[in-house]
Each structure stands twice: as structure tokens, then as C-alpha cells.
Amino acid sequence: MAVVSITIIEGRDRETKNRLIAKLTEAVIETLDAKPGQVRVIINEVGDGDYAIGGKPVFLEQHD
User: Fold this and answer.
1) Does the chain have fewer CB atoms within 10 Å around its N or its C terminus?
2) Taken in order 10, 12, 17, 23, is the CA torsion positive or negative?
3) Are strands 39-46 and 2-9 parallel, antiparallel or unpaired?
4) Handedness of CA 43, 4, 16, 57 (dihedral sign)
5) Sign (positive or negative) of CA dihedral 52, 60, 45, 33
6) How far is CA 15 from CA 7, 12, 53, 61, in A?
């Protein structure tokens, strides 16, 4: 079994996250010769301002 954990900034819609899950799953299947049922994908979403760069919280309006 393979477990892929990815952390993204929250705010993306379900369709986008579903595409991400599908592409990550396909990459694992191709690379590890795994069966689809052997792949788990976990999306961890981080809230705006809940991460920092250089000790300072980052907010979306600061990023393009």
C-alpha cells in the first residue's frame, strides 16, 4: 500500500482537489506498479495565516 500526503493552502474547490487526487494516484500506480485500491491520498489543508515564512505568518493577499 502507498500513502501520499500533500499539504495545500485551503480554498480550492472540490473539483480541483479531485483532479489532484486522481493525478497523484496515477503517478503512484505508474511508478510503483501498484493497483488503484492500494493507493491512499490525504490532502491536508492549511488555513490562511496558519503558516509562516521567516517567522512571519503568511496571508493570501501577500501572495500572487
Assistant:
1) C
2) negative
3) parallel
4) positive
5) negative
6) 17, 8, 29, 23
